[in-house]
Design goal:
CATH architecture of the largest domain: Sandwich
Radius of gyration: 32 Å
Mean pLDDT: 76
Shape: elongated
Number of domains: 3
Distance between the termini: 44 Å
Structural class: mainly beta
Low-confidence stretches: 1-26, 36-48, 157-170
CATH class of the largest domain: Mainly Beta
Helix content: under 10%
Order of helices and strands: EEEEEEEEEEEEEEEEEEEEEEEHHHHEE
Length: 470
């Protein structure tokens, strides 16, 4: 894991005036010094290592309001500080901030070595930080101001400087968190026209990561440039030593959405200060369970469903086809697997009511996505797994005329604890209980999934089966 160490430099600004000003003083001034945190001096040549690991910090080169200063760095009471300079009261701008090594030639500047430097706006790592230079500060009379400028350890091979503004002295480390993903694809034709180079039942995921630090968006990283193949995506993040930094990585995978492809949010990885990516340093995830390494995070298989649809119930008990509880007319967005039309559905709550011939807008869930489907009030993971097992092991669409009540009562026994009295229903409920145990929905083996329509806690849930592959 590549690591850059950064150093916070605090500008301590002491603004004061004398009661007896000299006759030729027309502008109040403040004394200014810059105090870097203590560093361990190292010397000697080490190929490929950053300069902060090789050289001591001898002086600070800083440009304030267009004026260059070379401020010697000395140690006072265990803390490094620069020579004091005076500035007029008012607003000032820092346009360069570089820690230098004299290269053992104090009288010659041309061969001096950059150790640390602040970032300029537009640099590669500028998105990681809250402030770049040019940076401003204000000198006020009778006021002490601490102004921090963060610099990154200079390395010719990797250097892109950047800066933070803090009001405490600390060390910031830049770490990398590496991710690698897989996507299970039971229906290969779903990826026709995508940028995936090798569409197969188990393929490398193309994904992006949105990085947040302390709930503030930092940057987005993606492996789309190399289509996910051959290397993990390594995401840099900046952690301050001695300060609690809370990070969140939102992972989105490129998947079929409507009649195209888009990045779909899958999960968030949150941690404090420093991430643990496992023994090999790479965090793995898989959508579906076609593959799972020892440390892989298994996520639900993706279904191409709209997030919401409008629907109304047009029938009552035993509609015309006599195979469902209700007839549902759906108005769905174009391009998804769930299309406009009238379908037979079952209700998933016996004690909650719903009005006929009234249009509802419902959230749509898939039984292949148990964590989200189980967020609804009347469902938990066990209920969702039982319902999913039921639609994949019983042909509920073709039980025959008048048999809808068997399926409806068994569903209510799962969702509402309905006591069954008919032997055929008791037997089917027992089969469900025995079958779902240790059952993990897998789109490569199952042929159907359950679509759940959820409007609100006081409107009855509706469910219908849908084929995984048309």
């Amino acid at each position: 894991m590549k690591q850059f160490m950064t150093l916070l430099l605090v500008a301590t600004i002491l603004a004061f005036t004398s009661c007896n000003k000299e006759a030729n003083t027309s502008q109040e001034q403040g004394d200014i010094s810059f105090s870097p945190t203590d560093m361990t001096e190292k010397s000697g040549e080490k190929d490929g290592e950053p300069n902060c690991e090789l050289y001591s910090a001898d002086y600070l080169f800083i440009v304030i309001d267009g004026v260059e200063y070379n401020l010697p760095i000395t140690t006072i009471a265990g803390m490094m500080t620069t020579q004091t300079i005076k500035l007029d009261v008012g607003v000032h701008t820092i346009s360069e901030f570089i820690v230098m090594n004299e290269n053992e030639t104090p009288s010659i500047d041309d061969d001096d070595i950059i150790i640390y430097a602040a970032v300029h706006e537009g640099a590669e790592f500028a998105t990681l930080v809250g402030e770049t230079i040019d940076a401003t500060f204000t000198v006020e009379a009778f006021t002490k101001l601490e102004r921090n400028i963060e610099v990154i350890c200079y390395h010719e091979a990797d250097y892109d400087a950047f800066g933070f503004e803090f009001y405490a002295v600390s060390v910031t480390n830049i770490y990398e968190y590496c991710l690698f993903g897989d996507v299970c694809v039971p229906c290969l034709e779903d990826y026709d026209g995508s940028i995936y180079p090798n569409v197969q039942p188990d393929m490398v995921a193309i994904f992006s990561v949105d990085v947040y630090r302390n709930d503030i968006f930092v940057a987005t990283y993606s492996n789309e440039a190399w289509l996910g193949e051959g290397a993990p995506l390594c995401v840099p993040y900046a952690d301050r030593e001695g300060v609690l930094d809370q990070f969140k990585f939102d992972v989105s995978v490129l998947l079929p959405v409507a009649d195209g492809f888009d990045y779909v949010y899958q999960y968030s990885y949150a941690f404090d200060d420093m991430a643990d990516a496992g023994e090999d340093g790479i965090a793995e995830f898989v959508l579906g369970n076609c593959y799972a390494g020892d440390d892989a995070l298994v996520l639900p298989y993706h279904t191409n469903l709209p997030s919401t649809v409008a629907f109304s119930l047009d029938g009552t008990y035993a509609p015309s086809n006599s195979m469902h509880y209700f007839d549902m007319t759906i108005d769905a967005p174009e391009g998804y697997d769930l299309t406009d039309g009238t379908y037979g559905v079952f209700c998933a709550e016996q004690t909650v009511y719903i009005n006929l011939n009234q249009v509802y807008v419902a959230d749509v869930y898939s039984s292949l996505d148990i964590p989200n489907a189980a967020t609804m009030t009347s469902f938990d993971a066990t209920k969702m797994q039982k319902l999913h097992w039921l639609v994949n092991n019983v042909d509920i669409e073709n039980l025959g005329s008048g048999q809808w009540i068997t399926i409806q009562n068994v569903i209510w026994s799962i969702t509402d604890g309905l006591s069954l009295t008919v032997q055929s229903q008791i037997d089917l409920a027992a089969d469900v209980t025995a079958g779902y145990s240790n059952y993990s929905p897998f789109a490569g083996e199952d042929t159907k999934y359950l679509v759940v329509f959820h409007h609100s806690d006081n409107v009855q849930l509706q469910v219908k089966s849908l084929p995984i592959c048309e």
